[in-house]
Every structure is written in C-alpha cells, then in structure tokens.
Amino acid sequence: MKKKVVVLTGAGMSVESGLKTFRDADGLWEEYPVAKVATHEGWEADPTLVTNFYNMLRKKCWGVKPNEGHRLVAKLEEQYNVTVVTQNVDNLHEQAGSSKVIHLHGELMKVCSSRNVDDPCYQVTLTPENCEITPGTKAGDGSLLRPFIVFFGEAVPNISVATEEAQKADIFIIIGTSLNVYPAAGLIHYVRPGVPVYLIDPSPISAGSNVQQIQKGASDGMKELAVKLLGG
C-alpha cells in the first residue's frame, strides 16, 4: 500500500507562476481593500465591484501555467497516495496533474449562488473562453451569482475534510505558506507524532523542532525534496 502524503500549499506555491500574492508589499490588497472585495459586507454593498474584481483575477489566472513545484507535487502520485490541501484559489495544481485537491478558500474558476454558496446545484465552472460573469447575472435559485470564494469572516467548509487528511498523513509537506493564516495553519497540529514534516519556504519559519525546513522557493525546494522522496 502506498504511503499517504499530504501537501499543504499557500500563496508562495503560485507566485513563481506569476500570480501576485495578496499579502506581500506589492500584493493585491495594496490595490483593492479587503473589506470591499473579499467580505460578505463588501459583496452586499457593491456586488458589481466584487464581480468585476474576480473577473479580472480569472483573466490573469488563465494566462499563467503551473511551475516546476506544481508539477513535482503531481509527480509524487507515481509512488504515493497524495492529497493536496491548498489555500490558493487558482487551479494550477489541477492543471499540473494532481488528482485530489482540497480547496480551503474556494475556487476562482467557479461561481455560485449568493444564497446557497455550498449547494453544488447552483455552482458553475467557468472556462477560459467564458471566464467573465456579467454583473447582475443570477444563479438557478434566483439569487445573484457570486464568486465561489470563502470571504473573510465566513466559515471554511473544507477544513474538516483537510483535518481528516492531515491525521492520516505518513508524510506532511508544507509549501509557500508562513503558517499565519488560520484555520489552515492549524493543520500541522493534527499530524501524528513521528510523521516527517517538511516545510519549503525561502523565509525562515519557526514551526517546531520536528519540522525540517528547506529554505528555498517552491520549485527549487520541491526538486530537493523529490530526490529524497522519489529517488534519483
């Protein structure tokens, strides 16, 4: 039976593909206030602004490709049972070939009912040719279509599923996250004692004595780790 690998990824995973992070000095929050485009209150106040903001993000996202880090995470599936838990809303892991991806903060390429966000009946997956939503467009239940994004202050529905995966991990890998954003940062506490934990990030991060940090970016860090886990 294949060993279970759980990979937790954050914004640093996708930055090498050309996607801006939200929190860095030149990140998206510098240009667009969080309260206006990433909260329920912002949506209620100006759904047109929010809709257009995520239309813009989708167009940017379709213009980038998975990097070597994404591809090497997918390559782990050759020898391991791999689950990716990502804080990112892009679909670069899926594009790279990862077959089991849990999105904690939603999916940029989907829109949903603003009344029943998690009802799959009213979720729509967009395509590169049709990635914009006209403000005012309604879902099947008559409510406005909104981005399938977990806004700040909203519950994170998939955290319970991610927690179960972390508890089953034989190897736990963290890539491109400072472990400051909860509840995702708390997943490391569900990893069983004695399970190897690898953290890939160019900045030094204090995450406990049992964590082995590879102080490199996502691609270079995964190249180093892949040698250890895949050989050759």
Could you characterize what this model shows?
The protein is α/β, with parallel strands linked by helices. It has helices spanning 11-14, 28-31, 34-37, 40-45, 47-62, 68-75, 92-96, 159-168, 218-230; strands spanning 4-9, 81-86, 101-103, 106-113, 124-125, 145-149, 171-175, 197-200, 211-214. Strands 3-2-1-7-8-9 form a six-stranded parallel beta sheet, with helices on both faces. Strand 2 (81-86), helix 7 and strand 3 (101-103) form a beta-alpha-beta unit. Helix 6 packs parallel to helix 9. The radius of gyration is 18 Å and the shape is elongated. The two termini are 22 Å apart. Mean pLDDT is 90; it is low at 23-30.
Number of helices: 9
Give the spatial strand order of the biggest sheet.
3-2-1-7-8-9
For the largest beta-sheet, the strand count, sense and barrel status come to:
6 strands, parallel
Order of helices and strands: EHHHHHHEHEEEEHEEEH
Strand content: 15-25%
Query: Helix fraction?
Result: 25-40%
> Which consecutive residue ranges, at least 5 long each, have pLDDT under 50?
23-30
Beta strand count: 9
How would you classify the helix and strand content by structural class?
A: alpha/beta
Assembly state of the chains shown = single chain
C-alpha end-to-end distance: 22 Å
Entry keywords:
single chain, 232 residues, alpha/beta, six-stranded parallel beta sheet, three-stranded antiparallel beta sheet, 9 strands, 30% helix
